[in-house]
Structures
1.
Amino acid sequence: MTAYAQRGHEELQKIKDRLEEEHAAIKARGLALNMARGKPSKAQLDLSMPLLSAVTSLEECAAANGTDCRNYGVVDGLPEAKKLMAVLLDDEPDNVIVLGNASLNAMYDAMARCWMFGTLDSAPWCELDSVKWICPSPGYDRHFAVTEEFGIQMIPVPMTAEGPDMDEVERIVASDVSVKGIWCVPKYANPTGATYSDKTVRRLAAMECAAEDFRIFWDNAYGVHHLFDEEAEQDRLLDIAAACREAGTPDRPFKFASTSKITFPGAGISAMASSPANLAEAKRRMSAQTIGHDKLNQLRHVRFLRDAEGIAAHMSKHAAILRPKFELVDAKLQEGLAEVGGCSWSTPRGGYFVSFDAPDGCAKRIVALAKEAGVTLTRAGATYPYGLDPRDSNIRIAPSLPPIEELEEALDAFVVCVKLAYAEKLLG
Amino acid sequence: MTAYAQRGHEELQKIKDRLEEEHAAIKARGLALNMARGKPSKAQLDLSMPLLSAVTSLEECAAANGTDCRNYGVVDGLPEAKKLMAVLLDDEPDNVIVLGNASLNAMYDAMARCWMFGTLDSAPWCELDSVKWICPSPGYDRHFAVTEEFGIQMIPVPMTAEGPDMDEVERIVASDVSVKGIWCVPKYANPTGATYSDKTVRRLAAMECAAEDFRIFWDNAYGVHHLFDEEAEQDRLLDIAAACREAGTPDRPFKFASTSKITFPGAGISAMASSPANLAEAKRRMSAQTIGHDKLNQLRHVRFLRDAEGIAAHMSKHAAILRPKFELVDAKLQEGLAEVGGCSWSTPRGGYFVSFDAPDGCAKRIVALAKEAGVTLTRAGATYPYGLDPRDSNIRIAPSLPPIEELEEALDAFVVCVKLAYAEKLLG
């Protein structure tokens, strides 16, 4: 087969006509499929049902140190919960505080504290004329929504296979004191699936920042979310905290993780790890905000997940459900688009997304066509700050939620939409 | 018996000598008793154990509308949780959003939103030269800690039996545009136990405020926390939202409540009620902060507490445990201090505290003496902004946590400490 770009006008017109018929036929089927959000499927949620019965008796309400977890207190988390979350944060329990039901909230709150009060004696960011933020793109739309909410000016920096373009990052942070931080999803990134290389991590730790209170918001959302059990098939991530300690920038990173995509999204626990100075400040400020987070839910997670081995065993069950879906995405895209040309996509070894790059100028049209065909995709542009994909190319595919038969239908429809949009584009 | 103030110097010296011996004897016993925080007792916590088994099966994870509560979403709370929390907020479910595990966090976040972004198009409070807040005193120390954290200047206003001194409140809000709000615990107030009169509520709703974005933070923490089952023995509170609608100030109140002292502190659910405009703004801003709160815990509470009747029946069991403790406090204080004179205390019909007014200049000394005797009390001054009780008189007694035998010992020790401090004071 010849790539679309090499076809003649007439031939392409015929292809387009046929695709329009196919698209109309799909529309007529009245599908209601969703590949928009990174939600676990029902089968994945079912894996964690024992969690709900893990704390029901009086004895089960007691922490290891005897604390009655039904009552007030323990603002920074139970010791055993710190130990558990340290596994996800790749850190020591002493460097961890356990927080509420979602890491997004933890990140927003950490940002809000810097905004309102500054950090480690720096000026409150709300008092500055301008605050800017580095946003590796494509990236996570909810990160961008947080910085946008604060009126922080977002600077997109291209994502590479090794993480953000570090030449660009170093250049920006070195010269501009108003650049206060960077969003990072360092492992199985949302949406590209890339894991930061050791070199990238070390450069982030060591780079010269004009702003003394520059902060790396290290959202390790997919730290244990491998698609493969064999270690050789799993990505490895260097710990940013260790790298920063080595580089003499120990207060630079705020690390975040949660059990949202391990147990139950919205009913999990989250945690933050950072330097002793940062943690002491966070605890002091948090103690005006809360008497403590949900310790019974901390206990449920400790009892159910236990430790690093327990987490790995549990994540292997998730992988068994997710892996065929990711394989299906790649197979369907290969089958439908490889010879059409102009498209590329990621084949991640973990995480929740496939990052799809359509021919330039086609992403919005593809998402619109898919919507007409009953397939909901993440909004085109969502993976860029302000929703502005300069090439109108990137689409985040989230294959986790639909059952595999539905995913297959959705991908078939998606392929038709991509081809149709591309043909339209080439025909001008 | 003659009141201490009427005694001669020599006689009082003898009394003091004897009290010092009594105090030393108590010290020697090495007690470790606590009347400091408004924590439910173990017996109260035991009442809610069925909550922990209320959501364990797959069917139980579904909301009434079919939502799988194990997955992401529903930023403002399940419909049935809104209905439940509307009972505590004395409002309609449509005016309610259900939040995280604690109303303190909800209040802090509401304050932070005003601080960072303003409210309903007002200027962000962080951009103003000065922000002030009315703090009815004695009041709740954690409220004062929130306003202090933001650097908001706190203005104490005396609490009366009908709520804050409204002449004073009206005078302050009318003339000073930097006065942005007031803390209210309107029912069974912390610590005085007073419930705002209808007249107070109507004046709060109708008063002319120089600041257009003046907000009443209405912390109805003890709305259903009666000590008596008979309606005639229960305080009634006029709804501030209804009063504000009538007065043409519908956006003035933010109402808060939680299940912290109904089920499990720290593992409960909280909620906020306000006007449609305020709720729309809060939801919009919150959607940058979170994807949703813990819906499984919302379901647990709905299943366990059910409705207004279920809540009332459950609170009656709390009352049966708490009432004898409050009766003991009053009996012990009457017995030990009535004839000594100089002291007064509240006899509330609900809530968690007895507000004790020692002779002026004695509160700090009493708390210190009690500490020596092994009885932890709330820090003297804690019930005033900045910890400054101008008369050094008020002590908050929290009788809920200790078992009744321990409470009895603690009160006996407390009475000795009060008498000793008073005798010292009179002897100069």
2.
Amino acid sequence: MKKLNLIVCLMLMVFTINTASAQARRQRPVISPEIKSDSKITFRLMAPEAKTVKLTGNWMTGAGAQIELMKNDSGMFQATVEPLPSEMYTYTFSVDGVRTLDPSNPIIVRDGTRNESMFMVPGDKTNLYGVFDVPHGTLEIVWYPSSSLGLTRQMYVYTPPGYKESTGKFPVLYLLHGAGGDEDAWTTLGRTPQILDNLIASGKAKPMIVVMTNGNPGDAAAPGATPAKKAVTGQPAQGNAMGSGRFEESIVKDVIPFIEKSYKVAADKNNRAVAGLSMGGMQTLYLTNNYPEKFSYFGVLSMGLMDNRQGGANTSADDRMKGLEKLKASQPKLYWIGIGKDDFLYANAQSLRKFLDDNKFKYEYLETTGGHTWPNWRIYLSELAPKFFK
Amino acid sequence: MKKLNLIVCLMLMVFTINTASAQARRQRPVISPEIKSDSKITFRLMAPEAKTVKLTGNWMTGAGAQIELMKNDSGMFQATVEPLPSEMYTYTFSVDGVRTLDPSNPIIVRDGTRNESMFMVPGDKTNLYGVFDVPHGTLEIVWYPSSSLGLTRQMYVYTPPGYKESTGKFPVLYLLHGAGGDEDAWTTLGRTPQILDNLIASGKAKPMIVVMTNGNPGDAAAPGATPAKKAVTGQPAQGNAMGSGRFEESIVKDVIPFIEKSYKVAADKNNRAVAGLSMGGMQTLYLTNNYPEKFSYFGVLSMGLMDNRQGGANTSADDRMKGLEKLKASQPKLYWIGIGKDDFLYANAQSLRKFLDDNKFKYEYLETTGGHTWPNWRIYLSELAPKFFK
């Protein structure tokens, strides 16, 4: 009985820290989202004073698609959506027109300067990137000097299970995010640590280090990792313009040397891969053209030729051809392209394929359904990582 | 001109991913919070359809304290608060009664199952835990086997600047969070990596490893780090009851051996410290009583004697005295107590002091203003870490 008193007393600590929150907690908790056994999902929000609550989810199609939640007598808004296939989903509420996260769901994912509530519907997709009872790698949040960018910068480094104890040397995948993202994107949205853990546990992928940098050359780190709040202007930060080649140069001049000095790395081209999505795909194309001797494996995800120029905004048709000749001469082991049928860069990816076909350069190609989205990029990483370092 | 077109085109990628968000971004961005040069803070929310918007911040005192934002003709709600002293602040909005994060502020901190928007007012406090141009340590997110708890569990490990290159062996601080928290708390809310970076750079603290575990023995990891959403019931998860000693046993039996196998560690009591806040302070007291031979440095933050029993829910007065005799015999180098004048456990901390005084046991004591809050715990870590391993 005394033990129970003590526990009750200590639990009160949590409650007394924030009275408003304590009041909310003493009410019967709201469960949202609730994933039923038939994969129907119920969303709930207690909002007696609100007029309207709407739901926006990344599974909805069409501009401005929303579902209206219905209010009951106790002021609870609720909507149940039809069964959703297995996937990691993000959503927000709109409460009387204000974009709101779900206060009943502690799990938030950040995409650049936007935050969304997240849930998963278990099944084939989450089998790729769920947390399972397999050996787990380590995720390191590391700062490194970038003399070419004049910044000390933050990056994430995944080391595979067994890395610490191993006396071996590991291959490295440099994995690049898209516009609006940062060094956290491939971890939180891309689920890279979980994908690699699962692929390595099943023997599909070789144990490898994965390096996830911040692809915006004007930024030291993601919002929140520096004391200054990142300006929320909808415009790229100064120095972050794509296509300058500054970030790509820093990969070769700063990142690779740092990684090969600080980690147990097999430091040769046959043990280096680079892959990127969208802006990161463009950065990968820059590296194929300018540093093919550094990598044996290339992955171009949701990207293609832009304005008839392959990678780097200033690449002329001439330079592009020179880049391809250089790439051919370096005899890469894999050049991989992945794109969704509904991707707004689909035609650009086809232009890239035509350019490579016309010039008798071999590549692998994966075409999926869907568009320019993380569900595709998680699949592409799951398909691509097993092809590296074999 | 072509280069500009390309950049504009690529920026559109970000916008086209989510139409609702794209619409929001095309509007003139809302700046919130805006910290003026006089440290007045303006909060803004665009909410033409909302009736009321209120602000709750952790700097406000009194139960249910809120500030109402005023609506202008364009539907923008706004409030300016008087200058706030330097600190890391968290806040939420209430939009027609619904608890909402600030959609204009990308920076969210999670405290257990609650999320809040965050900002910092620069000055003396943020000098302790801001990101400055000093060498940075690495934060590792690591999984380890806990055979005593029957779980594979996640923890955070800070390694100091220079750790990777060093051939030396480092002392270790085991740093324990409070009720409602998890392995992320001392990093995100406690700013441990930044505090240690800054203390080490100024020569105030010795380079040390800091191990931040999940103190809830029934949990494998924080919400979001496992596929199952943590139940939001306001009750501790099954097996998470405080005072069972299960977590404390796992520190000694699982965590310390894992750390000393996996890291470059000086593996003796003079190179081990343990400190904890609130529930973590109670866990520290358990360790002083039961494993004093394992540590030379103890920090009890915002905790004291509960119900006349020191640490561990089943500790009788007899056992407590036996524990103290054992602790005395082990001749610890530091026993440190920190508490705020307004802490609801202030009297308990005084009971602990009286018990130690009555029994002629030396300790150091820091009394601050304020209560049972992170602003105090960040100060306590800043004061305490320099005292370790000297």
3.
Amino acid sequence: ATNAGGLNVIRYGMARANVLGLEAVLADGTVISSMNRMLKNNSGYDLKQLFIGTEGTLGVVTRVVLALQEQPGSVSTALVAIEEGRHLATFLKHMDRALGGTLTAFEAMWQDYYRVNTAGLGRDPPLGRDHAYYVVVEGQGADPAADDARFTAAVEAALESGLIVDAVLPKSDAERERIWAIREHFQPDPGLRPFFSYDVSLPLRDILVYVEEVRGRLQLEWSTARLLVVGHFGDGNLHFIVSPGAAGSGDRAAMHAASDRCVYQPLQRHGGAISAEHGIGLEKKAWLPISRNAQEIELMQLLKRTLDPRNILNPGKVIDV
Amino acid sequence: ATNAGGLNVIRYGMARANVLGLEAVLADGTVISSMNRMLKNNSGYDLKQLFIGTEGTLGVVTRVVLALQEQPGSVSTALVAIEEGRHLATFLKHMDRALGGTLTAFEAMWQDYYRVNTAGLGRDPPLGRDHAYYVVVEGQGADPAADDARFTAAVEAALESGLIVDAVLPKSDAERERIWAIREHFQPDPGLRPFFSYDVSLPLRDILVYVEEVRGRLQLEWSTARLLVVGHFGDGNLHFIVSPGAAGSGDRAAMHAASDRCVYQPLQRHGGAISAEHGIGLEKKAWLPISRNAQEIELMQLLKRTLDPRNILNPGKVIDV
């Protein structure tokens, strides 16, 4: 119902791409059983799309047929450091091409995020804390020896060409987990509270300038504002952690609203999305016009009124009717 | 509008999986501009799904944003022979696992199809014509030397284990094209006319028994019936060419209707699709209840009536309203 994403969307797509069929219950109690099991089925309208990512507002999903993939037999990981923002996209393209379709993750951390999440390690982090950007890149294939050699050669080529300035390749699963923990386990320091989280996406080429636009707006709002940036760079999906810092004042709701303005208003001119993977719910409903135009919202409302005329399915979520 | 498929769906998905955004014109002239450029966007309903694969019945698609993929740097191909039908799916799984996500095509030909399409070659075909099944399997990766070695090793392992009984690996692009031509360029002999073509899909495990069910029904209909089977086996999608043969009598429409019955009626109990990739249009409309239940068809009709109340968009196609 939320078309969830995650760390491996770049390889496997979001939930929508992995759902073959489903069963849903409509507002009038009708059970729509579309339990398709085929990879290909163009026999009439693909009704499951009405229920994937619509957050329960058009029907209640009660069963799902998921497509399975062969489990990869190899995994190759690196944590790399990048100094110039423009190299993020170039390094992504380099690895995507070099790995020939086996790239499974490309996760970026801006410096502030890396510093916060390595502060409590109790040991030196895998890479120094003064680089501008960090990327966890991973490929999964079939043949550990050959895949590791290819992956390592691709990382070495990026080092030699200056795309990346440092890299560490884990030598064990435990080391791999420690690298992933830096990306995954957010460890906010006390000075960061309160903080507000975001889930935006935009075209790759606009990401760097957009982040600095947001940072500039936040600093105008609060001189001590902090912006931590992390995300699924390979998907164009960033997660922000925004904190007013010590200069933040006012109640939490007012601070949250100010933070929203700083993040969402500059997103519109980039054609970006206010939610890449977590959906709209109640919290982002007022901001939906940043990402969708009036005709789109009217068509959503028409679908909602048609399928749920008494507005009983997750009422008030996503759109008003 | 038809959610087209093709030879590489197993790797890249159908059109739906490759469309990021689109613009469509509704029946009342409203232009819905959903020109999303991101891989991830969960900001409200994914409206483009209304127009992908609905054959122009809910709107006219006027612009599309397509996702591009890195061009593969290597291609490895084999034509193999298989004697036992159950080995088709096992060989698919073997190659999918061995190639670690780089499998791009898995196309099967039953003996009769291979014979028809190699009859006019003017030379010996790449493999003898007495095998039960033939598969064109292809992987595309990044590194020609390493990928070819891995691909060849996977085919050799299948030979050694008896999954396949013969194989030929092209040594040039010209040889590769000759192999693909056997799969791609259907060359019906005069005795095959008239013939009727089909585009069904069903779960892999049911394919062999279903094909024989269809063959049995056709032989009851016409003692000289011929059934040529080819298709995107990796997607569970078969294309049939059905000919009444010399015993065929009656007008073409009556023969076509009899052929339809033989193909579609046994499909229902397998939960199969009467159209895997070519859509419903007019020709398959009467058979839609084989693949979709009454509740699904009513929901399709509700969408159609809501979005096109005057029935002016490709009227009469896919469903009646």
4.
Amino acid sequence: MIHEYRLARRVQFYETDAAGIVHFSWFFRYMEEAEHALWRSAGLSIHASGRDIGFPRVSTSFDFHRPLRFEQEFVVWLRIAAMTKKTIRYACTLTSGDLRIATGALTVACVKRQPDETLVAIEIPPEIAARFQVAPDVNA
Amino acid sequence: MIHEYRLARRVQFYETDAAGIVHFSWFFRYMEEAEHALWRSAGLSIHASGRDIGFPRVSTSFDFHRPLRFEQEFVVWLRIAAMTKKTIRYACTLTSGDLRIATGALTVACVKRQPDETLVAIEIPPEIAARFQVAPDVNA
Amino acid sequence: MIHEYRLARRVQFYETDAAGIVHFSWFFRYMEEAEHALWRSAGLSIHASGRDIGFPRVSTSFDFHRPLRFEQEFVVWLRIAAMTKKTIRYACTLTSGDLRIATGALTVACVKRQPDETLVAIEIPPEIAARFQVAPDVNA
Amino acid sequence: MIHEYRLARRVQFYETDAAGIVHFSWFFRYMEEAEHALWRSAGLSIHASGRDIGFPRVSTSFDFHRPLRFEQEFVVWLRIAAMTKKTIRYACTLTSGDLRIATGALTVACVKRQPDETLVAIEIPPEIAARFQVAPDVNA
């Protein structure tokens, strides 16, 4: 059972903006990259083709402590902070060497796509839920 | 003195993802588009060339209520929720027709770029602060 | 019958990079925005929900003459340069005031999605082809 | 002296669009990622802080042979196809396993930023030009 993932990453040029630093919208993509890598490390894909369930984002946030710059290396540390029957909440910390860069959170819900394209919340299928557990000391 | 802005927008194809809906990272860009339009409506640019101050993002969040799809029209309603000597906090509501799509928040701080490229928090220059005021009933 | 579209646009902050100018990948998105607006002006959506045909990109190019900067206003002028039974080729010119910014080209093909998700080239449906015509003097 | 780079990559979710495949604008970013990795493998950064020269894109193109999908693994093979005193031209091939995905080209020019922010073409500094050479059989 998986409860965390550490993704090593380097800033790409197209992620920077005219202020010379990574545009803040990218931190949410970095966090999602780590989420999908965590799922792969559990033997799963969060968006398997032909499956009618999905995991849309319910809420998310980031606090930014220091900027990231072009070609800077950093680590995205994602942990499962909470699980309910229908949702997963992640906690995320970005660091670069010893520097704390940013702190994020993300909650996703399991939904089933209806024939009319609307999304209805359902319980996370047991074969998925069984692969994950809450990380110890996630609020430490 | 300006306290709000309403930006009308349509979903572009490159903003959608393989789930058929707008990728959640785009909501932060929509909110920032409205912020910069609010500054322009106050006669200002948030990133004027040749100026050594900037307004990096300190924290931000979004709650997602309903998905947006390709070519859907929506409105980003941005209000100034609070101002301190060094920061501005915005509240944001996305709607599409009568539907509530998402609710966001964004706090930015005024900084001065040092010769070594580090950023130091400073007070918002009075000629900028004088153009803005907190929106009434922003928590209504 | 439609043969051209002019899209007025302003540079958004997240479209700039650390060199202080619009990242070149955005010019392809600007061109596509104009394409989809051209289709809407013909009463069509290029990606209608529930339809099993699509228009993937076959080839594209851009020549860059001058940079674009944050908040700069520009116009994307898209013209239909050629049509075959299965493809449409567009020519694109970006200008800002009197300045020539960039020149692009884009060819798209009509495809049908097979049950196994592969794409097979088909003829453009007549109700779509009838809405478009080649622009006069497109090579002028 | 460096003449090529092979970048291994996986499709991220935010790179896909509502057609279920990678949006075509991303191929240009993939090609640029490989370019910057090629420069790093030569001991260089294409955008070193404090330096007043840059390498803006002059022209670029892609032919798309097959789509890429979420989590698909692929390789970006970038080669130096030509060098002049002021420009570098790259040739690029994307493959996924045995499949040819796309073929691209990119020409960049060396420029010096003037005090008024305009860009003037200059010769590539010898300490940079000396690290690169044209790849053999690049048109094979």
